[in-house]
TrEMBL record:
Family matches, as PANTHER family: CARBOXYLESTERASE
Keywords: Hydrolase
InterPro entries, per the entry: AB_hydrolase_fold, CarbesteraseB, Carboxylesterase_B_AS, Type-B_Carboxylest/Lipase
Entry similarity comment: Belongs to the type-B carboxylesterase/lipase family.
Domain Carboxylesterase type B span(s) in chain numbering: 18-482
Enzyme class: hydrolase
Protein's recorded name: Carboxylic ester hydrolase
Species: Pendulispora rubella
Record EC number: 3.1.1.-
UniProt cross-references to SUPFAM superfamilies, sorted A to Z: alpha/beta-Hydrolases
């Protein structure tokens, strides 16, 4: 989901009582949205540049005097594809592309390898207060976007909110035999996840100074950010850094085996002219632009250290059971992807699409998601892929966990009129509702009400470890049912998504190999 949340005012008028001391120096906050104070662009690690490319994050340098934390830090290097996708989405939803600034705090802004910064949004606080903390992990296929002010609106509900950047693309997830060899853990490829862990360590050390309670930290994220949430919940290196987790529209955190990722990295290094005698010197000297041009799909790595096992295996074995979890997806996730990339154009292509799930499952899936004519294919494809790629993985996670788990599906269309009917609750629409992110298009009244309810559930979960509170529809722990964020918000059975039992069988086949 491409975020375009209302920007914070980049006013940096000094307010002496909002000085906060962290372990690297003193910060001065600026006015945030509502009755909040914002501290922007705080370095949580040293620049991962030059000889420090593709190494674990190092401590951030200290500074003298008072640092005015009044502007977001640079975004991590990334192609401009995110901006282009955002324009396609806004156009499809009937919005005004010209109304979305491409740069500055409302866009992704300037980029730099010196990008490991975070932002804190606190309610007007006193030092003695200990509020729950919500740490947002942005999505973007591990290759795009940044942590900005999108989640700041939740601070109005009495929690401290943290957002942050982490290394993206090849800079964040390149594996290579030489990188593995130089690592004391004999691992490579998960530098972006190491950044996420370092940001959480910073929160543990410093969040009390902002009125936050380090014993009540909840991580939450969308898409690749949701994959990150599940990976962190399963990672031994992140254990104890947070109390609760929320994964919105995860694809189940797929990762590459280290050996496969190393081979891919060696091919990339060769394409960049990195010599076999000293490939790391050449890779670390390569201009960022060449690295961006060389990357294609980016995935974390099952490296035996940060990710000891693939996430489906780790979840099935109970690695995440100790962390209360909210997990879910939207009802028509794939409708927004089909704007520029139809998954199938005719019945023959649709059968090929279903065949990817496994030859033995094709006929059952055809019966569950029928498309007898070519004109039936677009709707059937979206319904099938929305379930198979997002809803069913969320349900799988919920069904395999033995810890406290709540499962949701968001079915409320965020737009009104023709675009709302066509695209429904697409990928990222729950984020738009949660953050009241208009993205150049006003939210419908129903979407605003649904978003208000989501904010209450989400912040209540951060406060107490349970999303339920008086005045909201009761949300039971998972047991073959989910909370439908529709009209009305209500509990529904899992039979709404008929292909999920087939997904479970396919996943069992994979896990047994």
């Amino acid at each position: 989901m491409i975020s375009c949340a209302p920007a914070l005012r980049e006013v940096a008028r000094p307010i002496a009582e909002r000085h906060v001391a962290v372990d690297t120096g003193t910060l001065q906050g600026v006015p945030g949205p509502g009755e909040t104070v914002a501290f922007l662009g705080i370095p949580y690690a040293a620049p991962p540049t030059g000889a420090w490319r593709w190494k674990p994050p190092r401590p951030a340098p200290s500074w003298e005097g008072v640092r005015v934390a009044g502007a977001l830090g640079p975004s991590c290097p990334q192609p401009d594809r995110a901006e282009k996708i955002r324009k396609v989405v806004v156009t499809a939803l009937g919005g005004d592309v010209a109304a979305i600034p491409p740069q500055g705090p409302k866009g992704f802004g300037p980029t730099s390898e010196d990008c490991l910064s975070l932002n804190v949004f606190a309610p007007a606080f006193r030092a003695a207060e200990k509020r729950p903390v919500m740490v947002w992990i942005h999505g973007g296929s591990f290759a795009y976007e940044r942590g900005g002010e999108e989640a700041a609106i939740l601070a109005r509900r009495g929690v401290v909110v943290v957002t942050f950047n982490y290394r993206l693309g090849l800079l964040g997830f390149l594996a290579h035999p030489a990188l593995t060899k130089e690592s004391p853990h004999h691992a490579s490829g998960n530098y972006g996840l190491l950044d996420q862990i370092e940001a959480l360590r910073w929160v543990q050390r410093n969040i009390a100074a902002f009125g936050g309670d380090p014993s009540r930290v909840t991580i939450f994220g969308h898409s690749a950010g949701a994959d990150s949430v599940l990976m962190l919940a399963a990672s031994p290196e992140a254990r104890g850094l947070f109390r609760g987790a929320m994964a919105q529209s995860s694809s189940l955190g797929e990762s590459q085996p280290l050996a496969v990722a190393e081979k891919d990295g060696a091919v990339i290094a060769e394409s960049l002219g990195a010599s076999s005698s000293d490939p790391l010197y050449a890779l670390r000297a390569a201009p960022v632009e060449r690295l961006l041009a060389a990357q294609s799909g980016v995935e974390p790595v099952t490296d035996g250290w940060i990710l000891p096992k693939p996430i489906p295996v780790a979840i099935a074995e109970g690695a995440t059971d100790g962390v209360p979890l909210i997990v879910g997806a939207t009802a028509k996730e794939w409708s927004i992807f089909a704007i520029h990339s139809p998954p199938a154009k005719d019945v023959s292509g649709y059968r090929e699409l279903l065949r990817k799930a496994g030859e033995s499952h094709v006929n059952r899936l055809l019966a569950l998601y029928p498309a007898a004519r070519d004109e039936d294919v677009p709707a059937a494809s979206i319904r099938y892929l929305s379930d198979w790629d997002f809803v069913c993985p969320a349900r799988f996670v919920a069904s395999k966990r033995r810890g406290r788990t709540w499962f949701y599906v968001a079915s409320t269309p965020v737009s009104v009129g023709e675009s709302g009917a066509r695209y429904g609750a697409f990928h990222g629409s729950d984020v738009r509702m949660l953050f009241h992110d208009e993205m150049g298009i006003p939210l419908g009244e129903l979407a605003q009400r649904t978003g208000d309810a989501m904010q209450r559930y989400w912040t209540r979960f951060a406060i107490s470890g349970d999303p339920n509170e008086p005045g909201l529809a009761a949300w039971p722990r998972y047991g073959a049912q989910h909370l439908d964020f529709g009209d009305p918000i209500q509990v529904r059975g899992d039979g709404d998504h008929a292909g999920c039992p087939v997904f479970d069988e396919a996943m069992r086949d994979r896990l047994s190999k």
